[in-house]
Design goal:
By secondary structure, the chain is an alpha+beta fold. The chain has helices spanning 2-19, 59-75, 85-101, 114-120, 139-147, 150-156, and strands at residues 82-83, 125-134, 163-169, 176-184. It has a four-stranded mixed beta sheet with strand order 1-3-4-2. A hairpin with a 6-residue loop joins strand 3 (163-169) and strand 4. Helix 2 packs parallel to helix 5 and helix 3 packs across helix 4 (114-120). The longest helix has 18 residues, at 2-19. The radius of gyration is 29 Å and the shape is elongated. The protein starts with a helix and ends with a strand. Residues 32-39 and 41-55 have low confidence and may be disordered.
Length: 185
């Protein structure tokens, strides 16, 4: 056993010599000084209920878009679509993203797709479609823009969709509109 201990100690000494000098200790923990926080200012009252909270579309605007869409769907003998809160969240986030970037695209600045945005908002998409537009000033004119385009019209008049989400954001080149249509599972 003594020979084994000597061999182990010799091996340990060789490994220690091979490993090099000990690693220096890191500097002591640095704690940033606390800066004085500004005193809270007076609370500003809201002027009315006409403004949506950030990240939300006003209910009346979403309802106007869906009413216009459902009038077109009725002419094609499709059942009406119903607004879904989760789809509204997905559509509103995308409209805000497009307005911020001033770029009309189905792919979000984070690489998101319409389906991934719907899933992130809590909707389980089966069949989905997305119409986007920039510039029309009213819900009716946004829907008219889509109806005047054969590809967008085909999406609106696809009878399998039962849910809708609407997003609108202001900004240069806007308003920026998103209409998400889907059938969940």
């Amino acid at each position: 056993m003594t020979g084994m201990r000597r061999a182990a100690l010799a091996l340990g000494a060789t490994l220690f010599a091979w490993a090099g000098p000990p690693v220096p200790m890191p500097p002591p923990y640095y704690e940033a000084p606390l800066w004085p926080l500004p005193a809270p200012g007076p609370v500003q009252p809201r002027d009315s209920n006409t403004h949506a909270r950030p990240g939300q579309v006003r209910d009346d605007v979403a309802a106007e878009v869906v009413d216009a869409v459902n009038r077109q769907r009725a002419r094609a003998d499709c059942k009406p679509v119903r607004l879904k809160t989760s789809l509204n969240r997905a559509a509103q986030r995308h409209s805000a993203d497009m307005a911020r970037r001033q770029r009309l695209a189905h792919t979000g600045s984070d690489g998101s797709t319409p389906a991934s945005r719907m899933r992130d908002a809590g909707y389980h998409p089966g069949h989905i479609a997305e119409n986007i537009a920039a510039g029309p000033g009213t819900p009716e004119s946004a829907v008219r823009t889509w109806i005047d385009s054969p590809e967008h019209r085909a999406i609106i008049l696809t009878c399998r969709y039962i849910h809708a989400g609407v997003g609108v954001a202001t900004g240069d080149g806007g308003p920026w509109w998103t209409l998400d249509l889907a059938t969940g599972y």
